[in-house]
Amino acid sequence: MPELSRRASELGTENAFVVLGEVAELQAQGREIISFCIGQPDFPTPEHIAQAGIRAIQEGHHGYTPSPGIQPLREAVAKYFSRTRRIDVGTDEVVCGCGGKPFIGYTILSVTDYGEGHEVIYPNPGFPIYQSQIVANGAVPVPLHLREGKGFVFDLDDLRSKLTDKTRLLILCSPQNPTGSVISRSDLEELAGILADYPDVWVYSDEVYSGLVYDGPFESIAAVDGMRERTIIADTASKTYAMTGWRIGYAANKALAPSFTRWVTNTDSCPPHPNQWAVVEALNGPQDASDKMRDVFQERRGRIVDGLNAIDGITCQMPGGAFYVWPNVTEACKMIGVADSEELRKRLLHEAGVAVLADIHFGTRVEGDGEHVRFSYASSFEDIDNGLAKIDDFIRKNTK
Asked: N or C: which end of the chain has fewer CB within 10 A?
């Protein structure tokens, strides 16, 4: 049998879906599992948005569209970006795609050359697709560590040490997956000052959780002086509007929009036609439903942080956004005699019936920072309370 390429054999994955498969298998065996592993809102898509998608199908909007998306959607995205980022974004800068992930790959493909040693700096822990796409597309991954002592925001001096004449792209994510940390305006301004000495470096600003900031307004690096032209603003309808399965994302950068359009043509042809009309309604229509979702997530944030901090062996910082917490479980691992967070994760799943993700699912462990797991609190209050009670009981019973 012919062999696979090394690129295909070594391609990384998103372990949230791997663990989700383990959960589904256990549930099929009759086990009751409380899952905190998948990062998607547990709300239905708002009715007015769903109805817009239905109307689009009924009205015959089910053929190909221009690769960058229908004009009404690109206009809606431009207005949305302009309003929420407090900058002027033109329709010609916007390209729409099948979710947010493609733009990670399109950006790396557009600003680095295979085999040239071009470097991409990315957050660690971070969304695992960053590293897998960097490697698959022939660039060099350079992790930028997020430490607990800094509130899981990267150290600017550390960033300075990572920048070289080979650096072509810096990936930012704020609010961040998996830690929920938010980069402050002052840090973004200092970052812009550092990058002023590196004119060949682009910035991919992953802003898919921009609608889920709980303490103050959302801040985009694209709004900082000197950063507008070199920043790719990336967002999706998935998190803000509970539309993960609709698969519509969008990015804006004037210089790279033609390149992104060609990549869309070469891969997906265009985003799903009726789904684009649904997102037009999401962006242009009433925002009450998404505002309510954010308020509920904020309540859940307080509930899960307080609950985790009440469990012996676990400490948890209050995240500024998204719907994730990143508690430190170093002491819990010692108390019950497990080697690390991954062994703890497995035991919690199989013995306590609670599914979480381990830190190794989001990159290499940050040296000296201990063991962590990720909870998605896109779950009901009942599941949060019951899941934490099961974890507390498990640790108490298994403490050596």
From this structure: N
